[in-house]
Amino acid sequence: MSDIATQLGKKQREISISEFFEKNRHLLGFDNPKRALITSVKEAVDNSLDACEEANILPEIYVEIKNINNDEYQIIVEDNGPGIIKSEIPKIFGKLLYGSKFHTLKMSRGQQGLGISAAVMYSQLTTGKPTIIKSKIKNKNEGYYYELRINTQKNQPEIVKFEEIQWEKEQGIRIEMNLIGKYQKGRQSVDEYIELTSIANPHLKIIYKLMDEEPRIFERLTNELPKQTKEIKPHPYGVEFGKFINMLKMSKANSLKKFLKSEFSRISDKVATEIIIKSGIKENKNYKNFSLEEIEKVYKAMQEVKILAPSAECIAPIGEEILIKGLKNVIEPEFITSITRPPAVYRGNPFQIEAAIAYGKEKENIENNGVELNDDNEDDKTLVKVLRVANRVPLIYQQSSCAITKTILSINWKSYGLQQNPGALPTAPAVFLVHIASVWVPYTSEAKEAIAHYPEIIKEIKLALQECGRRLAMFLKRKKREEEYNKKRMYIEKYIPVVVEALKEILEFPDKKVSELTNNLTKVLERSKINE
Amino acid sequence: MNNKLLNAIKENAKEIYEKILNFKKPSIKFPVRSLNNVRYDKKKGYFEILDKKKIRTLTVNTVKTFAQTLKMISLSKELIVSNDIATKREAYYVSKNWGDARFNEQPESDTVMDDIEAMFEVNREQLGFIPEEKGGDVAGRLIVIDKDPSTGKTLRIDCTKFGSGAYSIPISVEELEFETKAKFILVIETAGMFQRLVKHSYWDKANCILISMGGVPTRACRRFIRRLSDAKNLPVYVFVDGDPYGFSNIYRTLKVGSGNAAHINKYFCVPQAKLLGILPDDIINYKLPTHPLKDVDIKRAKDALKNDPFIKAHKEWQIAMEQLIKMGVRAEQQALAKHGLNYVIDNYLPEKLRHPEKFLP
């Protein structure tokens, strides 16, 4: 996006990023009032979760939505995270593209430093009101209180009000913002987002207060925080040639070998030597003077040499067991299975796919609260519900353009014992969950609602779903067999007594023979069931 | 009490019982009841059953029918022992007491009954089951000797004394005796034609006995005609609509029996019957008004030519059927009314009866 913005600026006059996004807010998920409300909640909650996890704190988040008047709503999100230091607060909330995550390869919810400040800007645009931020850091006496605006011309925060305050809370952030929105129950609602966030983050306790309703509490299912992830360097296999050239030009390393070792992950001294030998370039040649052909030779050699897959240290999957636990909170499945795939790489970015399939009815309360997990085809309620999660963030919109959906559609579910109409999701009382964890989740747009269609990602999703599908198929087969057996058993149990009774009437044998005859006949028929 | 049948029933049940005790699948054998399991012998004069059998083995899929068959046999045994009877309809209602094994519709119980009948190679009356429908109507020079059901006193029923009505053939005709001076029996397909002949006392003019079948003759009707004809050595002339149904269903069933009840045709057939009319030639000779043959008529005629052992055994019948198909028309008995309402009495029947040699076999 910044590229587009820059180009636009060059062609015409200098316009700020804020100005650009002001005119293109749909790109960020603020295109209609209903979605704006969800997106704002989502950005705040995502930030809180990231902050808590980074600080190794079990998150407890309070979300409240108030209806101020007609279409004006106030959102309150408060966490128990580490808080933010005084000087950073205005920039984090009042400056777009300001953040700590853009330049690192590390798994987190936020990536670009765009979300929360965009929400602040949306609030300002629609209500004219400043956003209120409260922050407290552990072991400090005072907390901070800010009222902030964004100067959209300069992309700079404007502090409307600041004061030090007393806040009984030990630590945390509280954000209050007013915006023009629309609350609607049902699918693609804030309720649904909260619900799914709770599934994807079993270590999260979330209290959700919707207007005048009683607060709903989603208790945490585990006290284990997700594994702490590490920053990593790009993996050699995934770097595109153009990027490789840039990295080469920018590097401060004083030899080719050092460049390879320091800028990439998984390149050891041995591997670096191997690459250089394979490229046929003299080791001592100054790589800064390489011709394009020489760079290409190194690049090609790097692709050919056998290099370890990127470390999974940088990714924290939810985990097979906890995923099941989270799903069970929402549905009461007859059968549930999950799989966490080994880490894989797309464009040098490690990612890891998890999938779960739960078969069975949803819990009552979900129905009552109208959380529809399905995006498409409202008419047919029996279609499989697709839950898409990326770095523990539920994806609510754009289901049909998402790589996860595309992959589900590409699988022939009939061979796994499910019904499926051509080109449609399978029909079954089932939930399919797919989680992609990555240092850099490739979205189709800045609104972060759909996963881009990378073949490597699709392949991993497919393998995960197929494995779950195989297990489901086994379950369904067993279930069907049991049902058939019971049906037959019930059926023969209905008529065997009649056969015996008729024989008794004709032959007038003594009563004591009745049970023997009944037992024998049952055995004969059960055996016949297997043979036929 | 029919001890022979009772023993057969018990033997059959015993065999099933012992198979079950030895953990073996019991089975029941029935003769196949259809036209392709009968033989026609001109000398014997009726359809005889062949030995194609269907075996119903007790499996999960057949357990319901198996249970129903055994219950029906049990009901039959009870009827025989207590010297009682049940109509087919009553038997169907008795099944309502069998829990899940009950019949939902009467055709289901009728089928099971037919199976049992064939299984023991008896007629259903012997099993204690009697049909619902009445046997047919009789008028003319005949005295039927029956017994009063309550007193056992002999009754002499004069079939000339029913005025414009008629004597109704009872369901069981085995004990009846006859007195008659009539020269022949005229068996009529439709009740309408029968009414006309009765109204004008045709039996008096022609010195005959009139019997109305009302469509395909019931077993009782067939048996009545057979016993009467045998006892008094009377020829039997049959008067039906001139169409494939009248020929191959009504007339053929009367004469040689049906494929469905082939095991009992021996008793329920009238091999001496001959077809008086309406013959294909009559349609031409009497210039009868006609209707075109429907597709089902043509199919019936072709089927009969191909599959009916009776038609196949008689050249005359093949010629008649082919002639009818070629003409592509059919004519009803009532078509004779074109020449006047009583043309049938005054002209048609007398003329036809002068040449019995022209009747079809």
Describe what you observe in this structure.
The complex is a heterodimer of chains A (532) and B (361). In chain A, the strands form three sheets. An eight-stranded mixed sheet of chain A has the order 5-4-3-6-2-1-7-8. In chain A, strands 9, 10, 11, 12, 13 and 16 form a six-stranded mixed sheet that branches. Chain A has a two-stranded antiparallel ribbon with strand order 14-15. With 532 residues, chain A is α+β, with helices and mostly antiparallel strands. The model of chain A is unreliable at 364-380 (pLDDT under 50). Chain A contains 15 helices and 16 strands. Chain B has 361 residues and is α/β, with parallel strands linked by helices. Helices cover 41% and strands 17% of the residues of chain B. Chain B has 13 helices and 17 strands. Chain B has a six-stranded mixed sheet with strand order 10-7-13-12-14-15, sandwiched between helices. Chain B has a three-stranded antiparallel sheet with strand order 9-8-11. The chains are: A alpha+beta (532), B alpha/beta (361). The interface between A and B is medium-sized, with 26 and 30 residues.
